[in-house]
Amino acid sequence: MAHGRISEARRFFLASLSFARDNKQHWMESNALLNLGFASLGGEHYDEALDWSRLAYQEAESLGAEDLAQRASGNIGWAYFQLGDSDRAQELFADAERRAAALGNLREQLRWLTTQGVVAQTNHDLAKASEVYLQTLNLSRQIDSKEDVVNSLESLAHVSIEQGQLNNAESYLRQVDPLIRANGNHLDALDVTLARGRIAAARRQDQQAESLFRQVDADPASQITMRLGAEHELARLFEVEGRGEDARKEYVTALGTFESARAAIKTEDSKLPYFANATPIYDDSIRLLLSEGKIEEALMEADQSRARTLEQGLGVMGGNASVKEAALRPESIAGKSGATLVFYWLGEKQSWLWAITRQKTTVVPLPPRAEIARAVERYRQALLGPEDPLRAHNADGLALYRVLVAPAKDLIPPSGKVIVLCDGDLSKLNFETLLVDSPSPHYWIEDADVVSAPSLRMLAIAKPARA
Q1: Cα 324 from Cα 320, distance rounded (Å)
Q2: What is the DSSP string of 362-403?
Q3: How many whole angstroms separate alpha carbon 400 and alpha carbon 394?
Q4: Which of 11, 63, 71, 327 fits a 20 to 30 Å CA distance from 284?
Q5: pLDDT single digits (tens) 331-342
Q6: pLDDT (tens digit, 9 = 90+) per residue, 381-403?
Q7: What is the pTM of this model?
């Protein structure tokens, strides 16, 4: 494993598992299962890693082997994180860190502290991520783990770039360079190359940035996440340069890389959260299309992002021409459904609402994802509380209606049917409970027949209701 020969390592771990089971060596069995999960993580087979790591955890718990249990818990968290389920990952990382701290195992505590920094960075809490990585850097030096020092410095460099602190980023890269030359780890070298490309792009050294990103993308050793990162950065670079067509092509390339990786995942419950890994790419691609006035193209791309997984899960072939043709006519879908369609996309910097009738499609900009998500969570809690939100004129219930529904209200006939196609945190919201403030305060359920649907393409192939 240390030399990156993952397939060979996996064969040895399978032999260990077979030997342990034949000889009823339960601790050895748990350890072999743990190593198989670790090998699957290294090979980017994350759903497989879940299976092995869960088995390892169950066996360790039954044996009272706390050290194995904390490592298995963390590995399960890492698999969930790579599949895009950061909330579940954060819980498991925190659990693993607590277990490691109770055991006095500084090395394992460092590992799970690092993963919590990764989650903070992914959730754009950069101050928290930087704080955590400084802790991991100090702890790495305390236990004299050069590999962890390298990882901490690389992470600090990337966070500094995202914070716009380019001099700090370069300082971290200068510290890490001699360590990488000493360890000869090619993946670390590629990560530094990606970071230097990001610095060059931020400084508008466009030619140098493009060269560095292409170097990472073309290297056969690049992991999928690195290739996605390089292709995404190239697309953004081309946008900044005003090369709209090149940017569009690069977004298509990046999304193709993502879809190929997702197709290799075997289980549907893993495919669903794995989409979160491509959300920033879809986000930027959709924004570019809308900036060019390509309203329906952007809508179809947003819908494809979720329809593809649903089609796979339901056994509908994504290549079905009739499905594609129907999906490219949103007004026809609205007409067939006899409803106004309201389709949402929640983006990091900008969210969007498409309101679709049989006559036309209109797009409306909405606030960023985080702002909407906070309001949704507050209103959900209010609905669960003892006070009637309607009587209390709940501010979030009123605001969510004004933001999410009011822009489309003129397209909805009185008591008309509305099909809501949610995104992200909106799937936690019961739209019928939104508060309309005029002519007198009331729940939206009094104005419309509200139905949910997963995607436009799935709606297009739905069979009409029978009398």
Answers
A1: 7
A2: EEEEE--HHHHHHHHHHHHHHHHSSS-TTTTT-HHHHHHHHH
A3: 10
A4: 327
A5: 999 998 899 999
A6: 999 999 999 999 999 999 999 99
A7: 0.76
